[in-house]
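Reviewer 2 asked us to include a model.

Predict the structure of this chain.
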Amino acid sequence: MPPAIATHALTRSFDGFTAVDHIDLAVEAGQFFGFLGPNGAGKSTTIKMLTGLLAPSSGAVQILGQDLFYNPIEVKRHIGVVPEGMALFTRLTALEYLRFVGRMYGLDKATTEQRAEELLEFMGLSDQSRKLIADYSHGMSKKLALAAAVIHGPKVLFLDEPFEGVDAIAAGTLKAMLQGMIARGATIFLTSHVLEIVERLCSHVAIINHGQIVAHGSLEELRAGVQARLPLHGAADPENSAEANLTLEQIFLNVVGGASAARPEQELTWLS
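Predicted model (structure tokens):
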């Protein structure tokens, strides 16, 4: 099978600034894939290109074996997206919005109605379904955006900070839903600054920095790669050393150089 998501030399420049610089990615079908990077590294620009919201300056994107830019409509039938900013139609009610999205994906009226009701119940929004989205809290809007992204049963789901502003109870519900999608063979491409969530959910990770991929592989491969560069501090058994249990946060800081950004001598004098 071809990768669910594949890029070749994908590049995007803005007025001479290269935000994404010739990146090559391969995400296999059924993977829960984390895409990480510091602010301004190129994460959201990459997702916009992967979902057809932004044309690349050069390079290619294939989704489920099809070229996104030659077959955009066919590809978009099989993907779901929770974009940065969510882009909801705020003058509709939640029920009206899900009906609209379902019909746009080609679902018949009965199926759309059934799935909309089930999703609103699942997301804990049933009692707010006839309320204008403009009056929703940020967390409620995030849950509705995710409901709209999965109403058609996508094979590939792109999530840009899906847990931002979502309470702990709702986050647990969403995680269970996403893991259920993976169990049924879907592919999920997730960006998040909450590294604990990425570490708990994702099997594979890529890290982008200054527009370039600086690490790419399974968590075990990334951990082993960082461990190989770290001293063992005299540990007799590397398997039991601290480096053998590196967290994703430690891996991330090591790869992007963040560990050097917080030196003890760097202090705010009026707070010390």
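The chain has two domains: 5-78+156-261, 89-153. The beta strands are 5-14, 17-27, 32-36, 58-63, 66-67, 79-82, 156-160, 187-191, 204-209, 212-218. We have added this to the supplementary material.
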